[in-house]
């Protein structure tokens, strides 16, 4: 039975059924039992946009919208050309029912939400190591996976990045958070509110709380780096520098006799030649020239590669992929130089970094300091792997040595940012949202879980798209088409159908579907009617598997 026969039979019986479409976001279905379908005045209302908003399913097909009409006048009454335009000009973000866009929104945005080019995403690079990657550099994303949160399993996982979408210039806004960090994105970007619901930036109020990471997985990268090398590396990041420009000698500055003794012991165990300090104030230990072919030469070379002054310091990316015990050793070395517990007055007591709790006593707030933006970004991630979130303060006028601003990175176990909500998640509130003009922006698509972690803020972000609604809106200016909700080889899916022809909108170019038997419809709808093919069909649909990457590979025949 084709669509027209179904419509005719429904009209004769005088009971055109309204679709009971449950627009569940796959990643939070197991998290909440909140209803998304309600019957009102004989119509089925859907909660498929911002939380608390209900919409008739038929509202999403809009052939008479002004922007759709303008595009239709440009293309003309040609179904294949409409199909081609949608495939080639709109980026499908690979999820059905995540957040439904109206056709005019899809036209305006190209495929949804986006961030500015300097926004860093926490990724697993092709070598299997952590990397905070600027989103603009993910145009070549093959082999990269995004750190993502599975709300069903309540755990972090890595998911493939399956699309990169440059969106051109858009109006962007700076979002400042109460943990001292900020980022820039478009108003339509969505984040996870503390009730588990994605909410767009345009709907967020001041002091709205959103999910952020409290602890991320340790990769336990198999490294042969010794604890002495890691401790020295941490101290060099804080207090190390070349003795002079172009010199082969390094200096480790510190006035504390205990730390000086520890440095000398480490250098002796590593077989490195050095000169002890010659003064009590502004003292430093000089690491002399080493045999390049020796272990000592290799250690010294790596120290030099970490930067030569306070502004360009950075740790090798592989350090973030170490196990938790090794990260503790690295941070202990750093804290010996640039870490302390803030005290009243001017005395700053050096501290020992530990992952062990201090009984029932509240742990004092720990501070890291650096003038390097790159190092500050890395230091935010390292304690996060240990389950110790960081509060950030960018101090432009600090009254200390030098004129460069300093990143103050606070750790405070009593902070609300360290209070667990879901497993490995906490929440942070929004301080302000301010316009920043227009900038080039980008979006990525993450398979399955459809969210990713921002490196500098630890915030979870969301991604979305709906191309079938736009195509049906175009086609219904001169014909009668339907958005079809159903399954493809056991996976939940959506497509457009005109008479008996299937229009597959998930690919970047139009195709003739040669396996129509694999498309099993559960429901049809357009701007006039909605039909569920059997009672409970849509309930069954959204219990199907959710693996967008596997489904798209099947559709593409790869």
Describe the protein.
The protein has 558 residues and is of the alpha+beta class. The chain folds into 3 domains: 3-109 and 468-484 and 524-556, no CATH class; 115-214 and 423-462, Beta Complex (Endonuclease - Pi-scei, Chain A, domain 1), CATH 2.170.16; 227-418, Roll (Endonuclease I-creI). The protein is built from 12 helices and 28 strands. It has helices at 3-13, 66-75, 79-89, 103-109, 227-239, 257-270, 295-305, 324-338, 373-385, 467-475, 537-541, 548-556, and strands spanning 37-40, 43-46, 55-56, 115-116, 120-124, 130-134, 145-150, 155-177, 182-185, 190-192, 198-200, 209-213, 240-242, 250-253, 274-275, 284-287, 339-340, 366-370, 390-395, 406-411, 425-446, 451-453, 460-462, 481-488, 491-498, 501-503, 519-525, 530-532. The strands form 7 sheets. Strands 4, 5, 6, 7, 8, 9, 12 and 21 form an 8-stranded antiparallel beta sheet that branches. A 5-stranded antiparallel beta sheet has the order 26-25-24-27-28, sandwiched between helices. The longest helix is centred in the middle third of the chain and has 15 residues, at 324-338. 44% of the residues are buried. The model is unreliable at 1-34, 93-97, 344-355 and 357-362 (pLDDT under 50).
């Amino acid at each position: 039975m084709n669509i027209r026969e179904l419509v005719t039979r429904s009209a004769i019986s005088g009971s055109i059924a309204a679709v009971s479409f449950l627009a569940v976001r796959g990643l939070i279905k197991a998290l909440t039992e909140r209803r998304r379908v309600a019957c009102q005045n004989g119509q089925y209302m859907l909660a498929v946009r911002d939380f608390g908003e209900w919409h008739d399913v038929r509202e999403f097909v809009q052939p008479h919208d002004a922007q759709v009409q303008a595009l239709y006048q440009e293309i003309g009454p040609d179904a294949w050309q409409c199909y081609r335009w949608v495939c080639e000009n709109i980026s499908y973000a690979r999820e059905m029912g995540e957040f439904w866009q109206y056709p005019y929104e899809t036209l305006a945005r190209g495929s949804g939400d986006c961030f500015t080019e300097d926004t860093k995403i926490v990724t697993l690079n092709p070598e299997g190591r952590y990397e905070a990657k600027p989103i603009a550099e993910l145009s070549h994303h093959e082999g990269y996976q995004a750190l993502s949160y599975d709300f069903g399993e309540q755990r972090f996982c890595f998911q493939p990045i399956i699309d990169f979408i440059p969106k051109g210039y858009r109006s962007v806004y700076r979002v400042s958070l109460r943990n001292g960090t900020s980022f820039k994105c478009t108003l339509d970007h969505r984040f996870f509110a503390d009730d588990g619901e994605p909410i767009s930036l345009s709907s967020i109020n001041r002091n709205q709380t959103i999910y952020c990471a409290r602890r991320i997985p340790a990769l336990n990268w198999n490294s042969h780096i010794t604890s002495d090398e890691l401790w020295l590396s941490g101290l060099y990041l804080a207090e190390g520098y070349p003795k002079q420009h172009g010199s082969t000698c390094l200096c480790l500055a510190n006035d504390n006799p205990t730390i000086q003794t520890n440095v000398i012991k480490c250098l002796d165990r590593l077989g490195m030649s050095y000169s002890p300090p010659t003064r009590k104030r502004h003292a430093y230990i000089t690491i002399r020239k080493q045999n390049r072919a020796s272990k000592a030469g290799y250690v010294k070379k790596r120290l030099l590669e970490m930067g030569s002054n306070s502004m360009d310091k950075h740790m090798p990316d592989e350090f973030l992929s170490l196990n938790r015990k090794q990260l503790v050793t690295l941070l202990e070395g750093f804290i010996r130089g640039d870490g302390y517990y803030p005290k009243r007055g001017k005395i700053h007591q050096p501290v020992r970094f530990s992952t062990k709790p201090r009984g029932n006593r509240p742990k004092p707030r720990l501070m890291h300091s650096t003038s390097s933006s790159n190092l500050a970004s890395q230091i935010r991630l390292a304690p996060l792997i240990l389950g110790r979130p960081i509060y950030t303060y960018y101090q432009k006028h600090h009254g200390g040595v030098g004129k460069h601003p300093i990143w103050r990175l606070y750790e405070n176990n009593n902070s609300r940012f360290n209070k667990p909500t879901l497993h490995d998640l906490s929440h942070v509130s929004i301080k302000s949202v301010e316009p920043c003009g227009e900038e080039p922006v980008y979006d990525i698509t993450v398979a399955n879980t459809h969210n990713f972690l921002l490196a500098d803020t630890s915030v979870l972000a969301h991604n979305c798209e709906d191309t079938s609604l736009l195509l049906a809106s175009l086609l219904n200016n001169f014909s009668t088409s339907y958005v079809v909700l159903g399954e493809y080889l056991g996976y939940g899916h959506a497509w457009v159908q005109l008479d008996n022809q299937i229009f597959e909108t998930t690919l970047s170019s139009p195709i003739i579907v040669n396996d129509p038997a694999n498309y099993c419809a559960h429901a049809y709808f357009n701007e006039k009617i909605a039909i569920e093919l059997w009672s409970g069909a849509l309930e069954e649909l959204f219990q199907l598997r959710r693996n967008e990457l596997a489904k798209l590979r099947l559709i593409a025949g790869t």
